[in-house]
Specification:
Layout: H1 2-20, E1 28-31, H2 35-45, E2 53-56, H3 59-67, E3 81-86, E4 90-91, E5 97-98, H4 105-114, E6 115-123, E7 137-141, H5 146-155, E8 159-162, E9 173-178, H6 185-193, E10 198-201, E11 203-204, E12 211-215, E13 221-225
Parallel strand pairs: 1-2, 1-3, 3-6, 6-12
Antiparallel strand pairs: 4-5, 5-11, 7-9, 7-10, 8-9, 12-13
Helix pairs in contact: 1-2
Bound molecules: ribulose-5-phosphate.
Length: 226
């Protein structure tokens, strides 16, 4: 665990040095959610005079950013977002991801869709050599649709489990779909998006990451790009 956290921090530090070159005083940075991003926020705080502020993907991130004195913006106020930095629960070589382990998938997906560049930061345990699906797929669901949506996933061979004692920042629930085979992530994401009651699914394939900064134990930092 200690090693994994060190790798998360290394990826976060690297992301900071990457964006230093593309960010100016008029830019706002999109900031994801999770423990890897927490390290990134620490880095951002020492650079805060060099950008305008941030748009946060969760209440948790909002709190952390304001504690570090970083100005918050509402996405509706912005006409463009230069870059979005976020972690992932699982990522493959095409830079499709499973996200939502922290339950912030909806806001994450909205911000990712509006950013010019999406940089994913992760430790090596997140990389999937084969198909995505090691990590249970989080799906945000309107509360009244939990049974209907669960049945849909059971019919597809998945095992949906309602995330215990958890309500999203948007007032919805999360179903974590275990044992779910994801063959074609783009098609699967479209199909899940079409289920009535689904707010967002944690597959980020239609808009995957543009870059992956992966911190590894034995081979240093690896870069992947689309
Ligand atoms: C939150 C997410 C996170 O990016 C994902 O869970 C990774 O978290 P961590 O950096 O703590 O491993 O999608 O909704």
């Amino acid at each position: 665990m200690k090693k994994q956290n060190e790798l998360k921090k290394i990826a976060a530090i690297e992301a900071m040095s990457c964006i230093k070159n593309i960010i100016s005083k008029k830019n706002i940075i999109g900031v994801g959610t999770g423990s890897t991003v927490d390290y990134f926020i620490e880095e951002l705080s020492s650079f805060k005079e060099n950008f305008l502020g941030a748009v946060a993907s969760s209440k948790r991130t909002e709190l952390l950013l304001s504690r570090h004195g970083i100005k918050l913006f509402d996405l509706n106020e912005l006409t463009e977002l230069e870059v979005y930095i976020d972690g992932a629960d699982e990522v493959d070589y095409s830079l499709s991801m499973i996200k939502g382990g922290g339950g912030a998938l909806t806001r994450e997906k909205i911000i990712a869709s509006s950013a010019k560049e999406f940089i994913c930061i992760a430790d090596e345990s997140k990389l999937s050599e084969n198909n995505l699906g090691k990590f249970p797929l989080p799906v945000e669901v309107i509360p009244m649709a939990i049974s209907v949506v669960s049945r849909y996933f059971r019919d597809l061979g998945g095992n949906p489990i309602l995330r215990k004692d958890f309500v999203t920042d948007n007032g919805n629930y999360i179903l974590d779909i275990h044992n779910f085979k994801i063959g074609n992530p783009v098609e699967m994401e479209k199909d899940i998006n079409n289920i009535p009651g689904v707010v967002t699914c944690g597959l980020f394939a239609i808009r995957g990451a543009d870059k992956l900064i992966l911190a590894t134990l034995n081979n240093g930092i690896k870069y992947f790009a689309k």
